[in-house]
Amino acid sequence: MELRDLRTFLAVARRLSFHRASVEVHAAQSTVSARIAALENDLGVRLFERLGRTVRLTAAGERLRDHAAKMLDLEDEARAWVAGAGEARGSLTVRVPESLCAWRMGGMVREFHERFPLVHLSLVACTHDSLEQDLRQGVRDLAFLLYDGISARDLIVEALGVERLVLVAAPGHRLAALPQIGPEDLRGETLVLSKTDCSYRRLFEALLDERGVARAAGVEFSSAAALKAGIMGGLGVTLLPELAVRADVAAGTLAVLPWDEQEGGPLETAVLMLRHKDKWLAPPLAAFMELARTRLMAGAPQASADRDLPGQTDGRTAGRKDGRKDGRTNTRKDGGRCC
């Protein structure tokens, strides 16, 4: 088996398209087809089912995918070991919520780029629900979530800290004049929410649902900037990390609503860092993770007294106690997927 053919195979397995894979590996589509055919002939199995325009992995292809990723990780490890971390090349793809990237990662990304100028860093917004699959298939090297619980056997999860959340609205909004608000005050209100930071949003919606709080039809934005503009225009109420709205509140264009923590519980979420348990920690990836541990949450608020933040776990019970009466750890069967 040629490593070049394995890289091509993984590209087709990720994209499920020979054409899109050819763009990824910078080769003609006919070359991609030839490499896959050579790999299938070498192994004596079919790796893909081709049904018209549809491409699917066979059972043999599913088995090869994980082994191919490990073999290519080993190649990258050998190259890094020979060349030295200071000369590391390649790429690093990280999936991260928009607000975390925009308001907390600027400094650490700059520091990473200064240390690894030849590594292409791609920060991908959290816009779909295939987190575990992305990490398993190597589509993403690392991921971050703003979430309080996750259940995923294949993932190693580290809780880095706590992000404080706030409810905000336009300064003239009816709720901004109240001395305190709780879940019941949001009855009939329009919630304006983000698609790209939606993990903690689900927890908040679940809280309102548990209290039987019916809302008006919601509004979703895929851009935090567009969302804030809608809120400033009086569209409704939103939930965002406090750091994301600090400048707007200081400027008087947004108002933080006085949430009653005794009634509704604290508005905060854990910041989780996730990778696949079999992912080789190449020097750039290891360095990015260490920067996240030491730089990402610098100056962030401490956890509330009732919050249990673990260090590193295997992903089965990462998160915090959710404050419910039964005290069970708040985990999800869907792998804690962010959208």
Largest sheet: 8 strands, mixed
Query: What is the element string, with H for helices and E for strands?
Result: HHHEEHEHHEHEEEEHEHEHEHEHEE
Structural class: alpha+beta
Q: Could you tell me the mean pLDDT?
A: 80
Condensed summary:
The protein is α+β, with helices and mostly antiparallel strands. It has helices at residues 3-15, 18-25, 29-43, 59-83, 98-104, 106-115, 131-137, 198-210, 224-232, 242-251, 261-264, 283-296, and strands at residues 48-51, 54-57, 90-96, 119-125, 142-146, 149-150, 155-169, 192-194, 219-221, 238-241, 255-256, 268-276, 312-313, 318-319.
Written account of the structure:
It is a single chain. This protein is of the alpha+beta class. The protein is built from 12 helices and 14 strands. It has helices at residues 3-15, 18-25, 29-43, 59-83, 98-104, 106-115, 131-137, 198-210, 224-232, 242-251, 261-264, 283-296, and strands spanning 48-51, 54-57, 90-96, 119-125, 142-146, 149-150, 155-169, 192-194, 219-221, 238-241, 255-256, 268-276, 312-313, 318-319. The strands form 4 sheets. Strands 3, 4, 5, 7, 10, 11, 12 and 13 form an 8-stranded mixed sheet that branches. The protein has a two-stranded antiparallel sheet with strand order 1-2. Strands 6-14 form a two-stranded antiparallel ribbon. Helix 8 links the parallel strand 8 (192-194) and strand 9. Helix 1 crosses helix 3 (29-43). The longest helix is centred in the N-terminal third of the chain and has 25 residues, at 59-83. The two termini are 37 Å apart. Mean pLDDT is 80; it is low at 305-310 and 316-339.
